Amino acid sequence: MSRKEHPVWEDELMPFMDGQLDPAQASVIEEHLKECEECAAMVADARGLSMQMRAWEVENSSDKIGEHVLADLQGHEKKRRRQQQWAWWSRNRMWAYGLGGALAAAALVAVVLMPHQEKDLVQLFELERDASLETAPPPPPSEGQQGQQGQQPQAALKQELPETKVAQEAPSGPMVIRNARLTILTKEFESARARIQAIVQQTMGYLDQLTVRGETGSGKALSATLRLPASQIESGLVELRKLGKVLEESQTSSDVTSQYVDLQARLTNARNTEQRLLALQRERTDKLTDVVGVEREIARVREEIERMEAQRKDVFNKTQFATIQVELSEEYRAEIQPSAPSAGTQLHNALIDGYHAALNSFLGLTLFVLRYGPALLLWAIVLVPVALLLRRRLQGLRTS
Amino acid sequence: MKSDEQLMLEYKGGSPHAFEQLFERYRNPVYGFFRRRLNNAGRAEELAQETFVVILRGTEQYEPTAKFRTYMYSIALKQLWSERRKALREGKFAAASQEEKFESDPATGLWIRGALEQLDPDHREVLMLREYEQLSYDEIAEVLAVPVNTVRSRLSRARSELKGLLESPSAKGVSR
Predict the structure, then answer these.
(1) Domain count of chain A?
(2) Residue of A60, A64, A73 lying closest to B28 (CB–CB)
(3) Which tens digits make up the pLDDT trace of A137-190?
(4) Would you say B152 and A21 are in contact if contact means Cβ atoms under 8 Å apart?
């Protein structure tokens, strides 16, 4: 049977019956089925078979399957949420690391800078406090340190740094106290001495101590303690070396940062304690013993504050001003002596000297007898009888 | 009503409710798939569960280019083949087939099932996917990974064979 005689192939009937053909093809077959009994019977058989097969029904699934699957669904959801969280972490890990690193760096910077900020606060507090108080004048130098020719108005030479300036110039770096010592031999003593004072003025320092000695038969000597700004110590030393021949030079330094910071911390604590005590004093007015106790404690804390404040300023000043100890000596040159005294004067002087010598020898002998006579007499009483006894026995042996 | 693919994408996007809808839509068809092909109702239920679990766990791999039904029945078919291989290794398949009975219509079930079991396995699978799972020719071809023409020819032969078997006196004797 050709396509012309029978336009529908047998294998096209199944897709038609199953609805798998496009509408155009399906309509062609529908038309054909109206005319072809054989094909219509085949389709009817297939539909009958399909209906027979679909008559085989199975029961529905039990609820158990639902429970299991839904339980698994919940577990899977939890797992998926965790994975999504981790996925977020994976996607944003670099940002998170970056943010964490930035926070850590900020915390580190804060920790590093915090002591300085606290120090600045303390200094600000001190600045305000000092501004309200009168600056005490520097103590005058002791006179015992000054020689017969070196008495200088040192209070005028010493330039005490103002308190406000001290507070403002507190360094945030290491605090170092610098010391230097110079021993110089000079031919021009007076000009060297004047030069020392000029160096002090040029460097904005001050002369802490100055002693000048001069004796007959030897050159003059000067001992001075210079306090120069720490930043000027090098230039000051260079100028001082030009004063003459440097016989000895030494430099030392000591770091007092920890000491200063410790003092500041203790000072802050003491001031806080003082404030608390003052508040307590205002509030507690019930018992006299309590009030007196608070007053006593305030006095003690204030004394402690003053002492620590003095220590702090002392340390600070030492770090701000280097100490240079200068030992300057003059190169001695012997001078021609004036003419010798007259013969009468020499005889008179010889007589006076003889009298003093006789008097001194008599006085010396008297003093010797008085000082050692009793001891000699005691030993004579003991030793003389023994010596006599020994002598007799020796004589007896010789005669026998 | 949302399509299967839409629901699957919604679940992939984080909506558990979408999968619940899919499950309610296909729980009985999937169970029926296994129930008609296995003689053990309990095992059919377990395999149906496993099929949905595999779908759940493979959500990330699901691509909307494939129809959900095709995807689901492909998984179910692999589960079935795995089960059959396992049963053959253990020698339980034949024994179990004698013990199970269908609850809904035992007579019809035995009659149809007996005839289907006599078909060539390839022909039988095409016919069952078409009649019971209502898959189109293209879907069957995709699930079985064979050309569509092969599906058509196998389906035609399967129907022809089955008709002969059902009309034979022995088949009628078994069922009636």
Answers:
(1) 3
(2) A60
(3) 344 343 334 344 444 444 434 444 444 344 444 556 788 888 999 899 888 888
(4) no
Q: Does the complex come out with an ipTM higher than 0.95?
A: no
Share of chain B above pLDDT 90, in %: 36
| Predicted pLDDT at A292 | 78
Find all residues with CB under 8 Å of A328, minimum gap 6, and list them. A184, A186, A189, A192, A193, A196, A221, A222, A223, A224, A243, A244
Question: In this structure, are B83 and B116 located in the same domain?
Answer: no
Q: Which of A52, A73, A74 sits opposite B112 (nearest CB)?
A: A52
Q: Are residues A103 and A30 in the same domain?
A: no
In B, minimum Cα distance to A81 occurs at B14
Q: Which of A361-375, B5-19, B153-167 has the highest mean pLDDT?
A: A361-375
Read off the pLDDT of residues A23-49 as tens digits, 9 standing for 90 and up. Answer: 888 888 888 888 888 888 888 888 888
Q: Are residues A49 and A70 in the same domain?
A: no
pLDDT score of A206 more than 50: yes
Q: What is the pLDDT of residue A20?
A: 87
User: Is any Cβ of chain A less than 8 angstroms from the Cβ of B148?
Assistant: no
| DSSP percent split of chain B into helix, strand, coil, nearest 5 | 80, 0, 20
Report residue B24 as tokens: 């309610």
Which residue of A49, A78, A86 to mutate against B (max B Cβ within 10 Å)? A49
Domain that holds residue B133: 102-176
Q: Across chain A, what does the average pLDDT equal? A: 78
Same domain, B64 and B80: yes
Is B32 near chain A, with CB under 8 Å?
yes
Nearest chain B alpha carbon to A15:
B152
Higher-pLDDT residue of B56 and A172 is B56
In terms of domains, do B167 and B84 share one? Answer: no
Query: Is the CB of residue A359 less than 8 Å from the CB of residue A262?
Result: no
| Domain ranges, residue A98 | 64-119
pTM reported for the whole predicted model? 0.45
Q: Within this chain, do residues B90 and B110 fall inside the same structural domain, yes or no?
A: no
Provide CB contacts within 8 A for A150, sequence distance 6+: A210, A211, A212, A213, A222
What gap in Å lies between CA A271 and CA A281, rounded to an integer? 15
Cβ contact A131:A164 at 8 Å: yes
Residue (of A271, A311, A330) closest to A125 by Cα position: A271
Using the beta-carbon criterion (under 8 Å), do A66 and B23 form an inter-chain contact? yes
Q: Tell whether B60 and B117 lie within a shared domain.
A: no
Residues A324 and A175 in one domain: yes
Q: How many domains does chain B have?
A: 2
User: Of B43, B77, B100, which residue sits at a domain end?
Assistant: B100
Residue-wise pLDDT for A256-291, tens only, equals 888 888 888 888 888 888 888 888 777 766 667 777
If asked whether residues A306 and A159 sit together in one domain, one would say yes
Name which of B49, B102, B132 is nearest A65 (Cβ-Cβ): B49
